[in-house]
Amino acid sequence: MSSKLNRTLWIICGCISLLSTILTHLTQAAREVILLDSKAQQTELEWVSFPPDGWEEISGVDENYIPIRTYQVCRVMEPNQNNWLRTNWIARGNAQRIFVEVKFTLRDCNSIPGVLGTCKETFNLYYFESDSDAGWDIKESQYLKIDTIAADESFTQGDLGERVMKLNTEVREIGPLSKKGFYLAFQDVGACIALVSVRVYYKKCWSIVENLAVFPDTVTGSEFSSLVEVRGTCVSDAEEETENPPKMHCSAEGEWLVPIGKCICKAGFQQKGDECEACEPGFYKSSSQDHRCARCPAHSHAAREGSSWCECEDGYYRALTDPPSVSCTRPPSAPQNLIYNINQTTVSLEWSPPADTGGRDDVTYRIMCKQCSWEQGECVPCGSSIGFMPQQSGLADTYVTVVDLLAHANYTFEVEAVNGVSDLSRTQRLFAAVSITTSQAGKM
Questions:
Q1: What is the CATH number of domain 335-438?
Q2: What residues does the Eph LBD domain cover (predicted)?
């Protein structure tokens, strides 16, 4: 009877090729790190079986005729079975929580004649932690029970005739683990089982780029409900948003949760996908708070990539208070149509705005007064004794009155239009000028 049942299990394993879609290695690559996959190993597994006549390693082939290794046991005729099968030592890496996926078939005891009371339909799963390989001995007392595994579906002799394999898949979790590695053990207590595959893995959140921040591979926490907080590192040419650093949480299922905070591209760079690219020549970005590179404003240029500002053309300037986004400008031309009116020692000057304001709207006017001699025509700046009404410089209006001039004196007045970049210019001043001679001073 035992040899017949063993042949039955061999037939079951041979049916694997007909159900390849079920047994395909379904790794969720985005979340799982495989520590052990018996189906992927083509050579003998060489796990430890105790007693030696219990679990048996057998070979099968998949649909591509690639060998796979499985274990079976079917000692259902004798009572009080205690057959152990132990894996080789498994290094856990950085994992604290381990998942064990077992795919197996199990024979329905009612379909086996003469085994009433001795046949079982469950097996037990154990584990044992250690910092190194413990050798070949199995000490049952060292192992901690994970669970008793029962089949959702068991097969009968009729299923074999129809070449139907009822494959069961069970996943169990162990942890938190603290030592460098562990063993898994399967205890048979009298069932007819074939272990088709055993897969051991842990979950982690794989490295991603989110909101211009790199979040590294992160192993999930030790508890099912735990969240591992991870702070991201900005990609090249990006920086953290002020008081809002990039963070994400790695869930127990190996999924990144909704990000908090972000990185932004530095000045001179703009976002393109998950990277920051340099602004092209002729474009600029003055601040990380700006989203996109902008074309250089009028009368300016950026000769290189990654510019945070645009340089003004020759003859054009940008005031210290001008933001990088405004056009470069130049000093205004001279005022137009300057006229005067003399009343003894008082002169009134009026003029029209300049034809060219230099591209600015902050034009004001300032007056230069010079007193000139009769003989040689030499001129010197007027002293502080004269007055300007309303003022000498910063005039918004196009007129001024000059008082307290000397009687019978020659004066030259220069009226200059200025704007925010006039003092930056290295070119000659542009002004309108008029020369006058005062008459006799008025009576006291």
A1: 2.60.40.10
A2: 32-210
